[in-house]
Amino acid sequence: MKFSVIVITIIITLSCFVTIAAASDPQWHISTVDSTGDVGMYTSLALDGAGNPRISYYNYVFNDGDLKYAKWTGTAWEISTVDSGGDVGQYCSMKLDGTGNPHISYYNFTGGNLKYAKWTGTAWETSTVDSAWDVGRYTSLALDGPGNPHISYYNQTLTGNPKFQGDLKYAEWTGSEWEISTVDTGGVGLYTSLALDGSGNPHISYYDYGNGFLKYAKGNGSEWNISTVDTINDVGRYSSLKLDGSGNPRISYYDATGGGDLKYAEWNGSSWQINTVDSYGFVGSDTSLALDGTGNPRISYYNLTDGSLKYAKRSGTTWENSTIDSAGNVGSSTSLALDRSGNPRISYYNLTDGSLKYAEFLAAQTKIGVFRPSIHIFYLKNGTTTTTINWGASTDLPVTGDWNGDGRTEVGAFRNSTHMFYLKNGTTTTAINWGASTDKPVTGDWNGDGRTEVGVFRNPTHTFYLKNGTTTTAINWGISTDKPVTGDWNGDGRTEVGVFRNSTHMFYLKNGTTTISINWGVSTDLPVTGDWNGDGRTDVGVFRNSTHMFYLKNGTTTTAINWGINTDLPVTGKW
Q1: How far apart are CA 345 and CA 361, in angstroms?
Q2: CA pair distance 572, 539, nearest whole angstrom
Q3: Contact between residue 218 and residue 202 where contact means Cβ atoms under 8 Å apart
Q4: C-alpha distances in angstroms, 206 versus 26, 145, 232?
Q5: Partner of 192 for a Cys bridge, out of 206, 456, 474, 484, CB 3.0 to 4.6 A?
């Protein structure tokens, strides 16, 4: 594509909604990926189809650095050198194509040029993209639908007034050659971040260091539309850009004025809405932005004040900020990705010992409990303690779910006689009329919004009727003698249905258009489901009334737990 340039002035609207969370979450698991030499600067993280992390990064050796790559196999980190021809690997940016093969853009300090590497499935292929003077710092890579690479980067070639030297450049692979264009000139182009919209058009955020502004460029195939996003103080370094579901840009960036703040801008269709996310100390450099399934922003960033890694997430208009790692001087060169359940993963640099680190948020593990119908009391196992809740009536069937989306499971009851759900929602009760008196209750997050809704399974027609907001989803599954189960079998954040067939003690789980079949337990067991190991995927299990034992399938192992008495009904949840 050949581009001309149009400059647009944008009116900026300021808004700020900030709350600070006090401490790190104990569910973060932190590990060292590579500690051989001085490694881990310029990290770039991506997750493959199985949710396993891949990281590109720089191995610093004075005037002779290398580009490295780490891949988690499921049991260990597999580390390789991508390019060692000169001092290469700074400012690297990585994406995975549709087959899971990595593509990396990076800077060759020795030659002062932009390079590109891709894994063919058997070997790394490296090439030079642009060698016109000193080009290739601050690279950002994106892949289009066919998997062709597009790269934004900085041209540092020095001419004229030093304050207004340097350009923003853009390269795209046409399938046979690199087509290179200059997007913006005059002291611009540092800290670039590139994303492609659904039509393959490029969007770039970057820093105008001549004026101290955050800028944004959008290409349409023939011209670049350029606008200024934020001009308040010295803003725009460490920009990270993502597009929401409507193709609107969102940008995290650093305000270097005074103490240094983390800022966030989003385009609402007519103006930029700007928030200060964190202003506690010297914070906000090395930002990396991701959007969750509902479009809420998540940001990893560096706290220079105490040398720590921080993480911010927004729910609605409220920001929550937390410290993830403070062991030494850590948290620069951050790169953030979200897994299919929306859980964050972060790669970053440990300056203290020169190592590459990796932090992952492990979802809470599902715990067990029982409902004792005779006295309508729940006994919930929460580690070494028991939570008891009196709820419902002796003829009710127990249900559990996260009714308000706060991440914690609460209890409820289904009263067959009136086909009413009575859900305990904090100190209030939510009552829902659903199904028929002979139905069996089910619950799940049918639309992936983080809130559990109700449903029923009608045995005579072996049909699920799921309440999905104001609509009903009907799914025919199993046979009339089956027992219903629900779970997020593939970790995509949406609950699907399944059945347990007592006669053969087989689970038949609906996983999109496929069926997962699991032989587990014995014919007299009651089925249970839950994410026993916190990996975001629901596994199966059984409750054996005769011995009041839970047998939970946890990958290739079995977890056996004695709980309750033989007349109890099993429940599970993240209490």
Answers
A1: 6
A2: 12
A3: yes
A4: 35, 24, 15
A5: 206
Q: Where are the beta strands (DSSP E) in 363-477?
A: 367-372, 377-382, 385-390, 397-401, 410-415, 420-425, 428-433, 440-444, 453-458, 463-468, 471-476
User: What backbone torsions phi and psi does residue 195 show, to the nearest 5 degrees?
Assistant: -140, 150
For residues 328 and 352, is the Cβ–Cβ distance under 8 A?
yes
Name the residue among 444, 528, 455 with its Cα closest to residue 492. 444
DSSP state of 383: T
| pLDDT value of position 160 | 55
CA 329/CA 108 separation, integer angstroms: 27
Q: What is the rounded CA–CA span in Å between residue 57 and residue 326?
A: 21
What is the rounded CA–CA span in Å between residue 366 and residue 539? Answer: 10
Confidence class for position 164, pLDDT limits 50, 70, 90: low
In one letter, which amino acid is 456?
V
pLDDT at 161: 55
Determine the Cα–Cα distance for residues 553 and 445; give it in Å rounded to an integer.
22
Q: How many Å apart are CA 542 and CA 513, to the nearest integer?
A: 25
The span from the CA of 400 to the CA of 452, in Å, is 9
How far is residue 357 CA from its own chain's centroid? 18
User: Would you call 545 helix, strand, or coil by DSSP?
Assistant: helix
Helix/strand/coil for 416: helix
399 within 8 A of 413, measured Cβ to Cβ: yes
Say how far apart CA 444 and CA 433 lie, in whole Å: 16
State whether residue 418 is helix, strand or coil: helix
Q: In what order do the strands lie in the sheet with 539-544?
A: 526-530, 539-544, 549-554, 557-562
Q: How far apart are CA 218 and CA 6, in angstroms?
A: 10
> Rg for the chain (alpha carbons), in Å?
27
CA atoms 260, 244, 447, 360: torsion sign: negative
**β strands within 407-566, DSSP E:** 410-415, 420-425, 428-433, 440-444, 453-458, 463-468, 471-476, 483-487, 496-501, 506-511, 514-519, 526-530, 539-544, 549-554, 557-562
Task: Tell me which of 74-78, 139-143, 154-158, 279-283 is least confident.
Answer: 154-158
Asked if residue 423 has pLDDT above 80, the reply is: yes
